[in-house]
Structures are given as structure tokens and as C-alpha cells.
């Protein structure tokens, strides 16, 4: 059965929703009071984010290519591996999925949000903020992390790896390892958003949800985990073209 663009967007929505449900979910489990997973640590968070991506790829991979990330979609289009005409529809589906996933996390952990006093921990469930705010360097960190993510994903499409465009479901395993590696090695500075759909829609959810004792949603920083990943993805696509298509 040939899938329509709408069908593919549905899978991008569901895959991204599951990604955020599990990814933001592990942060909630780790950060919120009276959770059985409280203080699980950075390794638990980075591993669970990798597994979250794996689940999203298993869901969407065979049907949409499982981009699950506007930066990946833009990077693949810039590299000539995805139609520019479909980009906006994929991105809208991913953003909607990210928002839905954040709502599910809030519903799941509502009682724990209510008994947590630390507003920073509550914000961290939904979106990233830098460990040390230095916007030019924060931008660079997100740029490098997303460049690495997208460049490696693009490299999967070379004939020495899979001889086909897109990750598909089998791409779940190497991407899981890639996400874990980026998180453990490069995530300490900014929380490694490396995905506008991972950061912006949940940040909006944080802003509009009736979360007890919350702080502002960090809008002064919010443009960095959106723009830097897109720039990193475009640079990755340029490097991919230069390296693999000389």
C-alpha cells in the first residue's frame, strides 16, 4: 500500500509524541519529588532518551522514515534526500507530536509536579536550559551536537551502510547509540536539545499548563534550541554533499 503524505505525517506525529513522552518522562521521573526514579542521574536520562528515540523510530521508521526532528527533516532535504515540498508538513506533525507528548507527561506526573517546590526542576522536564548561560557558546554547543546527529544519520544512507534513503526501523539501533553518545559526551552544557520539536512545543506546554509554583518558561533562551539545530543540520548536509558526492 502506497502511503500518502498525510499518512506519513500521522506516523511522524505519533513517533515524536512517543519520543517526548518517554524522553521528558525520564526527566520527570528523575527530577520530581517522591518519584521512585528521583535522582537516578545523568546516565539514566541519556540512556532513556536514546531508548525513546528507538521507540519512535520503530513506530515511524517503515512509514515516514522517522525523522522525528525538524532539523533532521531540513538536513535531509538540503542533502537532496527528501522533498522540500513535504518539509513543512513533516515539521508541523513533529511539533504537534512534541506538544502532545509533553501534555501526556504532565498528566502522568501531575501529582509529583504538585509536591515539587523546585521550579527549575519543573521547567527541566519540558525543555532545556544551559548549565552556564553564555548564549554564543550555548548556540555553538547545540550547533555541534545537531551537526553530529544529522551528519551521522545522513551517513547511514550511504551504500556502505544501508544503500537506501532514510533510517527505516533498523536505523533505531545505531540512532539509539548515537543519541546516548551525544547526551553523555556533549549534553552537559545545554541539555542537548538537538531537536526543535523536543524543546519548543514542550516549552509552550509548560507556559500554558496550570503547573503549581512554576517559573517563567525561559523564552530569552528558547530561540537557541530551535535555530542552532537547524543551522547545525544545514552544515551537516553541506558536509555530507562535499564528502560523499564529490
Description:
Helices cover 67% and strands 0% of the residues. About 2% of the residues have low confidence. The chain is mainly α and 246 residues long. α1 runs antiparallel to α6.
Strand tally: 0
| Largest sheet entry | none
Global structural class: mainly alpha
Supply Rg: 17 Å
Distance between the ends: 36 Å
**SSE succession:** HHHHHHHHHH
Mean pLDDT, as a whole number? Answer: 94
Secondary structure tally, helices: 10
Report the helical percentage.
55-70%
List unreliable stretches of 5+ residues: 163-167
* Global outline: globular
Strand content: under 5%
SSE topology sketch:
Blueprint: H1 5-31, H2 42-64, H3 70-78, H4 87-108, H5 110-114, H6 119-126, H7 135-156, H8 172-186, H9 196-208, H10 224-244
Helix pairs in contact: 1-2, 1-4, 1-6, 2-8, 3-4, 3-7, 3-10, 4-9, 7-8, 7-10, 9-10
Offer a few descriptive terms.
about 250 residues, globular, mainly alpha
Summarize the structure.
This protein is mostly helical and 246 residues long. It has helices at 5-31, 42-64, 70-78, 87-108, 110-114, 119-126, 135-156, 172-186, 196-208, 224-244.
